[in-house]
Amino acid sequence: MTTVLIVDDEPQILRALQINLHAHGYTVVPAPNGTAALLAAQTHAIDVVVLDLGLPDMDGLEVIAGLRGWTEVPIIVLTARHGSLDVVEALDAGADDYVTKPFGLDELLARLRAASRRAGAQAAEPLVETPEFTVDLANKRVTRRGEAVRMTPTEWNVLELLVRNPGRLVSQQQILSEVWGPAYAKETHYLRVYMAQLRRKLEADPGNPVHLLTEAGMGYRFSP
């Protein structure tokens, strides 16, 4: 099932979209403001974001910027603002599409289907290759110099999150929340142990990694 993050400060809209999208086979994660939206995006596997630009705690453009710092998840903007400048700014900030309020459910569903298709096409490359190792995302396999590398489920989950965000800083909190759960968001020692194990298995020189990089005090980065 496709998971949609709905960000809107109007409770009746959140409730209506939850009911209607669920009836059409979607899983809905609601967020009433920008802060909750950014947290939800880190703690759930979100496929599409539907974002109202007019939020009580921050501008929708700030939410787009926050998301685009680490994910390419499709973003559909909801706007009651009829000036084209707002839409242009949202698209320039990284949004993929927009719907103007009031909107029909059929229109939103069509935009969701289109966004999901585009995301699927972008994710069609199942192999991530480096000079040292290859990650087969479709089959959840890792090989190094032609030999299969045994991965524990946790090692795989950490590695997959990093390689799906090549070149981007993935925060410690995000990795801990997605792999272990939100209750473990501060248990950074888990990450140090598992990153050391992954480097021993995949890096030519684990003490001087070139693919699984540490950004001190912030997180980790995968460099192909």
Helix and strand topology:
Blueprint: E1 3-7, H1 11-23, E2 27-31, H2 34-43, E3 48-52, H3 60-68, E4 75-79, H4 84-93, E5 97-100, H5 105-122, E6 127-129, E7 133-136, E8 141-144, E9 147-148, H6 153-163, E10 169-171, H7 172-179, H8 188-202, E11 212-215, E12 219-222
Parallel strand pairs: 1-2, 1-3, 3-4, 4-5
Antiparallel strand pairs: 6-7, 7-8, 8-9, 10-12, 11-12
Helix pairs in contact: 2-3, 6-8
CATH superfamily of the largest domain: Response regulator
Structural class: alpha/beta
Beta-strand proportion? 15-25%
Trace the largest sheet across and list its strands: 2-1-3-4-5
Query: Could you tell me how far the N terminus lies from the C terminus, measured between alpha carbons in angstroms?
Result: 30 Å
How many domains is the backbone divided into?
Answer: 2
Helical coverage, percent range: 40-55%
Mean pLDDT: 87
CA-based shape: elongated
CATH top level class name of the largest domain: Alpha Beta
Point out poorly predicted stretches: none
Please give the radius of gyration in angstroms.
19 Å
Helix segment tally: 8
> How many β strands by DSSP?
12
- Sheet of most strands: 5 strands, parallel
Q: SSE string, helix = H, strand = E?
A: EHEHEHEHEHEEEEHEHHEE
CATH topology of the largest domain: Rossmann fold
The CATH architecture assignment of the largest domain turns out to be: 3-Layer(aba) Sandwich
